[in-house]
UniProtKB/TrEMBL annotation:
Belongs to the peptidase M20A family. The lineage of its organism: Bacteria, Bacillati, Bacillota, Bacilli, Bacillales. One of its GO terms (cellular component) is cytoplasm. One of its GO terms (biological process) is folic acid catabolic process. One of its GO terms (molecular function) is dipeptidase activity. This is Peptidase M20 domain-containing protein 2. It comes from Oceanobacillus profundus. PANTHER family: PEPTIDASE M20, XAA-ARG DIPEPTIDASE. Residues 173-258 form the Peptidase M20 dimerisation domain. InterPro entries: Amidohydrolase, Bact_exopeptidase_dim_dom, Peptidase_M20, Peptidase_M20/M20A_hydrolases, Peptidase_M20_dimer, Xaa-Arg_dipeptidase. Signal peptide: none annotated.
Length: 386
């Protein structure tokens, strides 16, 4: 049966490459990926998937389902297709979208025999305001049994962890006045922001080493001779687990309040982007995928990356067994979020990664659909980690 998957991927390979290359040529930013979504949706429609667009209130999100009509697990492949300002597909999401779509189409051809259903979820704006967050919150994964996504990289890595993250904005409101003639009349909002940075820098000594806190001053006054009456800082705060992150964020908020007291400015705290949870890899599912990749690709599969980033797949992994491995483009020195990374996605190595990733995903889906012992082991592990 797996031989048939190899043939099915072979049949659609050229179309997948064309779609990925055209996404590279026409990169679209998060929540504006209309053309990219259309291309993937059109391809899935061609292969008899039922399409629903504009889900969870996101115009460029979609759900495409192929249901065999026979009982069996529901396998979800997640497709990303957002690009970055300046560097286009510098994170290679053109490959992610096509690998997941290709895997789903190939697997769908075997469903009349093995039963179950396969779904592609189009998940916009991973780089900014990941749609996987509202999808996880609004029950999209309730009837799904496993969720998979593969990210391109320089080298192949097993699925691992990622940091939980909150994006927090601190706005201080003071009182303007002439900075030289009547400084005593002013309340300096910028001073609060500076104290906020100082306080956070003092906190760094007393958090675990996985914590990352990094921020900018996005608003710091208009002119040096006017006491700044409004100042704003934006921070990302990250930690290995959601629970510990919540503790750290509490401390950061106390610092922010202290900084307001020091000047008398008023403080407003908001989340300027969605929060991401830490990634929990389902090890049983991950091992099956790794076995399939090793069988498919001649590149080494390295242990999980020691990563300090955050991904919206983390939120998905909290509600359904999930994996987020990396597929190598045979270029160990490749740096993500660069033009070079984007350019590599359209080379022979990038195309090979697309093929190998799609096939390994399809094979893994097939294993989950046909091996009930494996299916149970995946669910048991998930229940245990919850
Ligand atoms: Zn990225
Ligand atoms: Zn990415």
């Amino acid at each position: 049966m797996k031989q048939q998957l190899i043939e099915e991927i072979g049949k659609i390979k050229q179309q997948l490459l064309n779609i990925s290359d055209s996404l590279y040529e026409n990169p679209e930013l998060g929540d504006q990926e209309y053309q990219s979504m259309q291309k993937l949706v059109a391809f899935l429609k061609e292969h008899q998937f039922e399409i629903e667009t504009n889900i969870v209130g996101r115009a460029t999100a979609f759900k495409a389902e192929f249901n065999s009509g026979k009982p069996g697990p529901k396998i979800a492949y997640l497709a990303e297709y957002d690009a970055l300002p300046g560097v286009g597909h510098g994170c290679g999401h053109n490959l992610i979208g096509t690998m997941s779509t290709g895997a789903a189409v190939a697997l769908s051809k075997l469903l009349h025999v093995v039963g179950g259903s396969v779904i592609v979820l189009g998940t916009p704006a991973e780089e900014t305001n990941g749609a996987k967050v509202p999808m996880s919150e609004q029950g999209i994964f309730d009837d799904i049994d496993v969720a998979m996504i593969v990210h391109p990289g320089g080298t192949s890595h097993e699925s691992g962890e990622s940091l939980a993250m909150d994006a927090i904005q601190f706005s201080y409101f003071g009182k303007p006045s002439h900075a030289a003639a009547s400084p005593e009349q002013g309340i300096n909002a910028l001073d609060s922001v500076i104290q906020l940075f100082n306080g956070i820098n003092a906190l760094r000594q007393h958090v675990t080493s996985d914590v990352r806190i990094h921020g900018i001053i996005s608003e710091g006054g208009q002119a040096a001779n006017v006491v700044p009456d409004k100042a704003t800082a934006q921070f990302y705060v990250r930690a290995k687990s959601r629970d510990y992150l919540n503790e750290v964020v509490e401390k950061v908020k106390h610092i922010a309040e202290g900084a307001a007291s020091m000047t008398g400015a008023l403080l407003e705290i908001t989340n300027y982007e969605l929060s991401y949870d830490n990634m929990i890899t389902n090890q049983v599912l991950s091992d099956v995928y790794t076995k399939n990749l090793k069988e498919t690709s001649n590149q080494a599969v390295l242990p999980p990356k020691a990563t300090y980033g955050s991904i919206d797949m983390g939120n998905v992994s909290q509600v359904v067994p999930a994996i987020h491995p990396y597929i190598g483009m045979n270029e160990a020195t490749l740096v993500p979020h660069t033009k070079e990374f984007a350019d590599t996605t359209i080379t022979e190595e990038g195309h090979q990664a697309l093929h190998d990733g799609a096939l390994s995903l399809a094979k893994t889906g097939y294993d989950v659909l046909t091996d009930s012992k494996l299916f149970k082991a995946i669910q048991d592990e998930f229940k245990k980690t919850k």
